[in-house]
Amino acid sequence: VYQSMFALxxxxxxxxxxxxxxxxWVLPIDSILPVTRISPTDARMVIALLAATTLVNxxxxxxxAAYRCDGHFAxxxxxxTVLRAVGWLIQMGVLWYTASPLRVALTGFVFPVLxxxxxxxxARYYNPWxxxxxxxxxxxxxxxxxxxxxxxMAFPIGSALSNQGVLQIVGMAxxxxxxxxxxxxxxxxxxxxxxxxxxxxxxxxxxxxxxxQNDLPLQRRLHRESCRxxxxxxxxGGLLAFSIxxxxxxxxxxxxxxxxxxxxxxxxxYVVARSFWxxxxxxxxxxxxxxxxxxxxxxxxxxxxxxxxxxxxYRGMHGVAASLLLTEVAMIYLVLRKSMSLTSDRLSSFLPYxxxxxxxxx
Length: 362
Fold this sequence. Notes:
Helix content: over 70%
Structural class: mainly alpha
Number of helices: 13
Mean pLDDT: 82
Low-confidence stretches: none
Order of helices and strands: HHHHHHHHHHHHH
Strand content: under 5%
Number of strands: 0
């Protein structure tokens, strides 16, 4: 399975790189991106290096699967975190001494490539059964894994479209000043979303193991506990961001943007709703049953653009933020319905359990 997934990632990476290179060299970058400090050629090189770095990170995720499946997830996270921290420090040093976007992008590509080697060899040290190469790759396994792999990519693609697409709508409909204010409020609210990574990354391997062992009570318990902690942690983080926004936003923007408490309250609900369905989606994701949910997510994000355009005309930034909230609420229904079915849980007992504060907050 590992070698088959490596073959699939290699094929998709080759296709993606070819498409990106063709696009950046054919499209008029100098008119699409109004850059003035670097040449169009350097801008193309920076985009190509950033795209290549993104693809390299996919192979880190594949190697992380080897750490996860054999009880060495903590070691893998520790090694990956150290490599990323060292790479970030090196990039900051290059930026400080050269002030060259091209050199920073080149450093950001070369170091992950070099760091991938010790990361993979460490995975092989912890998992002697891991064999590198393509000798044991099977076309049947590649075909079976293609749809879940592509569906997995739909979530970051949908999030990127939602973040940048809605911001473009705000800029076109309400002007650049509103776009800046909208971005500042959303960025502050999204700090709570980072907590989800701590929970979901920890729960996925445990839930996958429980699913493989057909341990339904453990699956149900993991789902309930992860949702409960995610909602409460994100709610507390969101309330903290909401309470300090009147002071933080003016200081952050040097007095250019004032806090909009109504907008912040909508984003607070947005963060809580997003934390709910994203944490619950661990259940179908760990079972490779997330393809339909991923397609629905992309469709809902696309529909939210239409709603945002209309809402911006009548309700301004508040209407656009409400359109994002509606997408998250719809995703709660879709994801929770699937997760409840897979864990054989009932909503009448699940919701009171999640609503009850964990012991750490009592």
